[in-house]
Amino acid sequence: MATYFRDYANLCFEAFGDRVKHWITFSDPRTMVEKGFETGVHTPGLKLPGTGLYQAAHHIIKAHAQAWHSYDTSWRRRQQGLVGISLNCAWGEPVDISNPKDVDAAERYLQFCLGWFANPIYAGDYPQVMKDSIGRKSAEQGLGLSRLPVFSRQEKNFIKGSSDFLGLGHFTTLYIMDRNSPSRHGPSYKNDRDLVELADPEWPKLGSTWLHSVPWGLRRLLNFAQTQYGDPPIYVTENGASQKFQCTQLCDEWRIRYLQSYINEMLKEPLRGHMQMVTEIVTPTACTLCVLLAAVLLMLLLQKHS
To answer: What is the pLDDT of residue 227?
Structure first.
């Protein structure tokens, strides 16, 4: 399937590459595999809990790399475009930041959500916490091998670095806490994570039951992705708010507030670059001027004294 996808991508590059300069191979593959191969509510409607989604994700990652390498070797020089992937993830905030177990649970949430696809592309393999958790639970369930597939050494090298930019889809935030008691249910993606998701009742609710307006979560997710994956170019590829209530005329002030607050958080992101500029340019310049000014004043004082 990965080679079929590469062939399809090549057809698209050939047909549209003279006009399209930014390519996204897959959009929100995590939801695609979870709902298509775990819960079965989306196409192809398979219910293979704890196994099907990991297999599907494994081939999606390899298919993405095939498409990227094909563009890089055959089309980039002529078309001067960029190829990336778009990954959706909510921000996971520890319920108690002083509790190491909640902090670890929030880290697991982000790695099972964003790192699942981003880590192979930027680091060459699945996050270690995913490998450890799924491997341990697979052994507890009497399986000889982990339910998480394994990349060969050649595949790791082929996948690593196969992205010109990272697309991030983000809508909301969750509080995360460690799950104290083991799950009595069988293998599943949710059980593999060993965590509990919570929403603050004070967060403004929007049209979907799972959606709350939590603008600061976007900034934290951007910072996480920036530091975790070596400061790649990042595009926010998905964001928005679903219909809050039915009305017959324009009544989306709540949506304006949502978008404005999230955009404001995103606009804060370049401050790090500005602070670096202040540190590297303005501060040394100011120090030099102070030294020169002190030297001039000293000379004037010496001349007056003499």
So the answer is: 95
Please, are residues 17 and 75 in contact by the beta-carbon 8 Å criterion? Answer: yes
Q: How far apart are CA 12 and CA 91, in angstroms?
A: 33
The residue among 181, 159, 170, 168 whose CA lies nearest residue 61 is: 159
Average pLDDT of the chain is 90
Contact 169, 88 (CB under 8 A): yes
- Picking from 210, 78, 233, the residue whose alpha carbon sits closest to that of residue 163 is 233
Q: Look at 78-87, 157-166, 287-296 and tell me which has the smallest mean pLDDT.
A: 287-296
Calpha distance 197→214 (Å, rounded): 15
Residue 134: both structure tokens together: 């799924």
Q: Residue 254 corresponds to which tokens in the numbers above?
A: 């709540």
Reported pTM: 0.85
> Phi-psi category of 161—alpha, beta or left, where left has phi over 0 and alpha has psi -120 to 50?
left
Q: Which helix (H) or strand (E) holds 42?
A: none
Distance CA 207, CA 214 (A): 14
pLDDT at 288: 54
- What are the DSSP calls for 164-175, one per residue? S-EEEE---EEE
Instruction: State CA 114 to chain mean position distance.
Output: 4
* Contact indicator for 193, 112 with CB cutoff of 8 Å: yes
Query: Residue 85 pairs with which residues in a beta bridge?
Result: 166
Buried-state track 59-79, b at ≥16 Cβ within 10 A, e below 16: ebbbbbbbbbbbbeeebbeeb
Going by CATH, does the domain composed of 2-269 fall within 3.40.50.720? Answer: no
- Give the H/E segment covering residue 158: helix 153-159
SS3 214: coil
Question: CA 87, CA 239: separation in Å to the nearest integer?
Answer: 12
